[in-house]
Structure formats: structure tokens, C-alpha cells
Amino acid sequence: MDSRLGALANTRRFNRRGVLQAGVGLGALAAFGRIPAEHMALASPALQATPAAGGSLVAAASGDLQFDPYYRVTAAWFPMGTMYNALYDYSDPNSPGPVPSLAESDEETDTELTVKLKQGVMFHNGRELTAQDVVDNIERAKDESIGHFLTSYFGPTVASTEVVDDYTVKITYTKPYALKRDDLATLFLLPKEAMTDIATKPVGTGPFSFVSYAPGDHLELARFADYFLEDQPLLD
């Protein structure tokens, strides 16, 4: 890895971790039932108690919300992180880089990444996530006409995508590339049938699903009963 690519990797990891940490505090992580052990000592006594299912969380923020995750900004992280998932994320505090989320495993060469998906992951519309969804989302990420920031990540780097089977996708890159998983950690997956209306009717695989939104007033989300992580989230 040359110095420029190394610096870019470190910058991207810092920025993406920074967005996560800035937008989701201990209270929000408690909603999912996962708080790193080393952070618990900093939490209030109530938060250190054994988590129980049920209840609700009210959070406040300024500004209008953007539900298309391809236009992700820090102010929108809470709804993005609750309604959507990517193949990888930064949820492991002991890892210097992204770890599998919707991905089950992968095999990597300098110019290819073959990803095996977790089975049984459901979109909020009731359809199962498949390898074709990864292909559809990468194609959307490469589409310069949409005008989102992901084009600069996927446009110059991804040469092609291939569905190997229902739960396996192969991504081929234009040249040796070290940030494959980092880029995929920014790509929240959407069902193709929901892409047209995603800005106003968000559909993802996240722990909470969209109920309603009144701009300038409130956003309501509800626990997604078919979330792929067992016994999560805890909040209703």
C-alpha cells in the first residue's frame, strides 16, 4: 500500500467511525442491546442495569432528515443507522477496520472480493436480501446522474459485479484496491423496488422500520420483528 492509499484508508476509517460515534451515543446503543464493556463504566447506574425489552426512546436533533442513505450526513446518522444496514460496519471496538454485518464471510484477492451473505436477512417490506440486491445497490452507487457521494467511491473502483448464487456476489475492481470493505461499509442496502421512493418512504434491513415522518416535528420508528440479529433491538 503506498503512502497516499494508506493515508486515505486511515482518513476514511476515522471519518466513518467518527460519524458513527458522533451520531449514536450510549443511549442509542442501549436501544440495540449492545454497549462495549469498556464503555459501561462511563454509563449511568440505570444504563448499567441488565437491559430489558420494551419501552421507547425519544431523541432530539435539528434540521430536516434525509432518508436516502446514499446522501448520508452526520445529522442524519440516527435514522440511517436504525433503518439500514450495510455488508460491513464498524461495530467492533476491537477491530481497526470494518467487520461483517450483512456479510457472513468473504474471500479477497487484490482485484476481487467475493462476499457470502447472511441468510434470512429481511427487508422491512418482507422480502429476503439476496446477492442481486448487492449488485443493484452497487449499480445505483455508480450512477453519476443521481448526484450522491458514493459515486466517487464506487465509480472509479468497481469494474463489475456478478451474482454467483442467491447468497454470493463477486465484485471485481479496476485495479488492486485496499479499501473494498471500507467502501462497502458506506453502502446501506435498499431493495430495488423501493429505490424510487426511498427519500420519503425508507425501506431497509435495520432494527427499526419507518412508521411516519412530519418534517420539522417528529420521526416515528418501530421495532422490526424480523431483524436478523436475535433478541435485538430491545426498544419497541
Explain what you see:
This protein is α+β, with helices and mostly antiparallel strands and about 240 residues long. The protein contains eight helices and eight strands. The protein has helices spanning about 5-25, 25-30, 35-40, 45-50, 75-85, 130-140, 150-155, 180-185, and strands spanning about 90, 100, 105-110, 110-115, 160-165, 170-175, 210-215, 220-225. The strands form three sheets. It has a four-stranded antiparallel sheet with strand order 3-4-6-5, with helices on one face. A two-stranded antiparallel sheet has the order 1-2. Strand 3 (about 105-110) and strand 4 form a beta hairpin. The longest helix is centred in the first third of the chain and has 21 residues, at about 5-25. The protein is globular and about 50 Å long. About 30% of the residues are buried.
The structure class reads: alpha+beta
Record the strand order, biggest sheet.
3-4-6-5
Strand content: 15-25%
Order of helices and strands: HHHHHEEEEHHEEHEE
Rg over alpha carbons: 18 Å
Question: For the terminal residues, how far apart are their CA atoms?
Answer: 45 Å
Name its key features.
two-stranded antiparallel ribbon; disordered N terminus; 8 helices; 236 residues; alpha+beta; 4-stranded antiparallel β-sheet
